[in-house]
Amino acid sequence: MRILFVGNSFTSRNNLPGLLKGLAGARGIDIEHKLISAGGASLRQHLNAGKALEAIAGGSFDTVVLQEQSTLPVKSPARMQDSVRDFDKAIKDAGARTALYLTWARRNAPEAQEALTSAYAGSAAELGATLVPVGMVWERFLSTHDEPALHDADNSHPALAGSYLAACVFLIALLNEDPVGIDVPVKGLDADTAALLRHSAWDICQSLAG
């Protein structure tokens, strides 16, 4: 599968695409990925810059993952949804599918998750896009686990455990694969923690689907 990721540091931090590639490889799926990222960038900024649209138009991707700036869906969901519509048209014209990377609330503002979820889920439903419910899984995990920390020290970006949990959710939502039992080592993450995150991703995604 060929995947283009369009976003910012919530995607690039800890090499989320690479973490997904490692998980998918353990299930016999080869992923080729490209990341177009800019610090703090919104989807509208990516549209205006043109680089992402140029890559999409090249027609070499199966899936394009869109990640909005982390607080914009809370502050201006309509602006986000307009940007997603514009991207989705270009993606469909190129014969690819759209996936929306639903991100998480900051550690000191967990109440924002509801607005994030609503904005992303609304766009996914409108456009028939694949929803990758990372923020929803984080929210459920954090309600029952104090460790490992999913947020980095800035209370916003993902720690390695948070990015790994996100990658497990991508494996489930994009590839319909179960991460449980995959034992590919991840530098900086001990085996027991990785196993907990894989099991949690699967259990929570199953619960959300139900």
Automatic annotation (TrEMBL):
Specify the domain of life of the species encoding this protein.
Answer: Bacteria
In the UniProt record, does the keyword Hydrolase occur?
yes
The UniProt entry, under InterPro entries, shows: SGNH_hydro_sf (IPR036514)
Query: Is Hydrolase among the key words of this record?
Result: yes
Cross-referenced SUPFAM superfamilies: SGNH hydrolase
According to the UniProt entry, its GO molecular function terms are: hydrolase activity
> Which keywords, in A-to-Z order, does the entry hold?
Hydrolase
Instruction: Please state what the protein is called.
Output: SGNH/GDSL hydrolase family protein
